[in-house]
Amino acid sequence: MKKLTVSASPHVRSSYTVPDIMLDVIIALVPALIASIVLFGFRSLLITVVCVASCIVFEYISRKIMKRDTTIGDLSAIVTGMLLAFNLPVTIPLWMCVVGCFFAIVVIKQFFGGIGQNFVNPAIGGRIVMLVSFSSAMTNWTEPLKWKDGLDAVSTATPLASLEIGGNITSLPSLLDMFLGVRGGCIGETCAAALLIGFVYLLIRRVIKPTIPLCFVGTVAVIMLIAGKGNFEFMLYEILAGGLLLGAIFMATDYATTPITTKGKVIFAIGCGIITAVIRLFANLPEGVSYSIIIMNILVPHIESITKPRPFGAEKEKKSKKEEAAS
Amino acid sequence: MSKIADGILKAVKQVKGGVLVDHHKDTKDMATVRITPPERVILPMQQHIGAPCSPIVKVGDHVDVGQKIADSDQYVSAPIHASVSGKVTAVSEVKVANGRLLPAITIENDGEMTLSEDIKPPKVENKADLIKAIRNSGLVGLGGAGFPSHVKFNIPDDKNIDTLIINAAECEPFITVDYRECIENTRNIVDGVYLLKDILGFKNIIIAVEDNKPDAIKILKDIADMDNHKDNAVKVMTLKSKYPQGAEKMMVQSATGRIVPAGKLPADVGCVVANVGSVAFIARHVRTGRPIISRTLTVSGSAIANPMNVRVPVGIEASKVIDFCGGFKKDPVKIIAGGPMMGTALIDTDVPILKSNNALLAFADETRTNKKERACIRCGRCVAACPMNLIPTDIEALALSKDADALGKAGIMVCMECGSCAYSCPAGKPLVQYMRLGKDVIRQAGANK
Fold first, then answer.
1. CATH label of the domain that carries residue A185
2. Cβ proximity of B30 and B308 under 8 Å
3. Structural domain of residue A183, as residue ranges?
């Protein structure tokens, strides 16, 4: 008889692995990728390929330089590359994409220990750096579906910029166009239909729970309904405009940078919703989703510390006054 | 199904967490087969939780089947009996399934299987008689943990116990011992249930089964409805088939909604949980006086030629049991004593089967057991799976940094090592090992104080 394997229990494991999870996220992003090509042309695909390739290369090189084992096999760099690409306008110069990817992978992810250790979402971090560094290139929007005519890109404003409380919404694309993504915006964020297909896929595959997307979008909806004095149409535009759905479904659900318990997830998502709404309503910024997620990312350790579950059968922790005084 | 469901209780409360593992109850329809008694048996002096026994026979002595050969004067302990008749050939240290060396008595079988004269039905009229009988029988919990049963049933008078929960959940994959017990030993289960009810005065008796065993549910339902007990105290409860449904604390919560406080026992919330096989054994012991000298094992897994349920004498070597089941059809990579979730991997097959072993599983491949370990991505699957509401991934970090205080606050001592966290971890982390490491850190910190 050959030597037997002796290891600690359990002796069976689920077959689901980290690369499986990442592959599911990539699959869930494919509808939005197809939509971006249809809406903004093959340059969308080119941007995505450049971002994915540079993320993989940066991940590989930085791990090598830091003398750590290679982790490109977990496919997380591909997810980061796709998400960052989806948050860019179609006219973005490719070298800027590479700069954004460098920041996302090397500075935000690998400097802090690699997968699972980053304190903010790498794609959002990369995007915000680009937004601050190249603000005009990052807000240069073109009209959708015009690329087939072979004309030079026609500049347009995003619906979000045109949205004002009590303003005229007749100048905006129809709600159906908003749902299908026929509007100006980042390549991967406009097509709500494609993003929702990805959302359903992630739910079916149990990659994510609906908690964060629903609480996030729900909070924005409620605030906008109140701010718009009950104008339902205004609320729908707010939900479909900007990067809310992309952010809520794919970025605010990033495992590493969100709370681990359901209670924590609810707090996190409501916080994201409030910050997004406040930025959109009051701040002089084009969009609030990225900032809201990154701010809440930073608050995650604090959310975690107040939402720790009580171990089974443990007594409710009663902090004595002495302890409180000592701390 | 609908007919079976009549009058069957549903769980009072769904327990949190747990994992859906493949059941693999391949041997469920195989009637228990008696093994030919082996040439020798090896009986380690500790087959239970508590104080080890000391031999009361010496090399050269002749012993009969059922004769007491080792005992302890400690309360939490259970005597050990000869499972074959013959000559004691050695009192020495042997290796047991978990790799420890334990003193053990080896008996060379004379093939006669002469029954000891000590075996006669005990007189059981009150609680004291029953507890004494259970102690003398050497019974330990047959569900796997091996806690001496007389201690469990000897409820202190100041504790108000109203509910006996009979555990027939059998949530570990592969194992079908309790299921066969329900099908084959119905009579003993009936007697055991009503004996315990009448003598120990339980107000409620709940027989809990997972809902993937409709045949067992039907049989147990018939027991619960028996005519001569019209006070309706015995009920069958079906539980969702979900690992680790059969764990004691989970069981208490499902059946009564009560939560056993951390560091306490079910008795502290008025419950006693007993394995269905143990209950049946008590009835048989009271009728015949035979101590625990044999037990049923499920022998299964991809490397076993003929998977089956076998009745074996306690102390038989694992290799003999495997030979009886046709040996290996493929080279085994891993052999487990117990279930795949909580069992112990064997170093070798020359170890003796103990009273508390309920399965012997041999696997030819371990594709699912050796997942590549990666960094934690904080996906939270371990947190969702933990029935004890712990955060295994945090505990891993605390265990590695040897922070005893923080580990204690994180509640690590309530961990029962069910393996749900490690099972569900997509990063392939050996989380149960980190749990054990963490408990050790606490024990050492306690010892250093």
1. 1.10.3430
2. yes
3. 18-306
Domains of chain B: residue spans and CATH: 2-28+121-288 (3.40.50.11540), 381-448 (no CATH)
Lookup result for tokens 């006054």: A321
Supply the Cα-derived Rg of chain A in whole angstroms: 21
In a domain, A6, yes or no: no
ipTM: 0.88
In a domain, A321, yes or no: no
Q: Is B430 on the interface with A (CB under 8 A)?
A: yes
Q: What is the pLDDT of residue A9?
A: 86
- Strand ranges, E, within A284-324: none
| CA–CA dist A98, A77 (Å, integer) | 13
Query: Taking CB atoms and an 8 Å limit, are A5 and B369 in contact across chains?
Result: yes
Is B85 in contact with B141 (CB distance < 8 Å)? no
The H or E element spanning position B44 is strand B40-44
The DSSP 8-state label assigned to residue A134 in this structure reads S
Asked whether B282 and B135 are in contact (CB, 8 A), the reply is no
pLDDT in tens, B111-168: 888 898 888 899 888 899 999 999 999 999 887 778 899 998 988 878 888 899 999 9
What is the C-alpha to C-alpha distance for residues A320 and A315, in angstroms, rounded to an integer?
14
Asked if the Cβ–Cβ distance from A10 to B375 is below 8 Å, we say no
Residues of B in contact with A115 (CB under 8 A): 374-375, 377
Write the secondary structure of A210-245 as one string of H (helix), E (strand) and C (coil).
CHHHHHHHHHHHHHHHHHCCCCHHHHHHHHHCCCHH
Sign of the Cα torsion B319, B325, B327, B328 reads negative
The whole-angstrom separation of Cα B380 and Cα A309 is 13
Set of chain B residues whose Cβ sits within 8 Å of the Cβ of A308: 391
Give the Cα separation of A23 and A14 in Å (integer): 17
Residue A196, classified by CB atoms within 10 Å of its CB into exposed (0-12), middle (13-18) or buried (19+), is: middle
Contact A260 B393 (CB under 8 A): yes
Instruction: Tell me how many degrees the CA angle A188-A193-A199 measures, rounded to the nearest 5.
Output: 80
Chain B, residues 310-339, CB within 8 A of chain A, namely 328, 331-336
B368 CB neighbour count, 10 Å cutoff: 16
Split into its structural domains, chain A has a count of: 1
Q: Which of B340, B377, B391 sits opposite A18 (nearest CB)?
A: B377
Alpha helices in B51-147 (DSSP H): 127-137
Tokens at residue B178, please?
Answer: 């309790």
Burial category of A65 from C-beta neighbours within 10 Å (exposed 0-12, middle 13-18, buried 19 and up): exposed
3-state secondary structure at position B309 = strand
For the cut 80, the answer to whether the pLDDT of residue B316 exceeds it is yes
Q: Alpha helix (H) ranges present in B386-430?
A: 392-400, 404-409, 420-424
| pLDDT for the residue B321 | 95
Contact B238, B265 (CB under 8 A): no
Distance separating alpha carbons of residues A208 and A25, to the nearest angstrom: 10
Q: Please name which of A304, A311, A8, A315 lies closest in space to residue B412, comparing C-alpha atoms.
A: A311
CB neighbour list of residue B124: distance below 8 Å, 6 or more residues apart = B130, B133, B195, B199, B286
Q: In this structure, what DSSP letter does residue B262 have?
A: T
Angle, helices A76-86/A94-102, rounded to nearest 10 degrees: 130
Whether the CB of B142 is below 8 Å from some CB of chain A: the reply is: no
Residue B350 and residue B321 in contact, taking contact as beta carbons nearer than 8 Å: no
Q: Can you give B83-130 as a three-state secondary structure string?
A: CCCEEEEEEEEEECCCCCEEEEEEEEECCCCCECCCCCCCCCCCHHHH
Any domain includes A2? no
B395 interfaces chain A, CB cutoff of 8 Å:
no
Alpha carbon of A195: minimum distance to chain B alpha carbons (Å):
21
Model confidence at A129: pLDDT above 80: yes
Exposed / middle / buried, residue B2 (Cβ in 10 Å: 0-12, 13-18, 19+)? exposed
State pTM to two decimals. 0.89
* C-alpha neighbours within 13 Å on the C-beta side of residue B347: 8
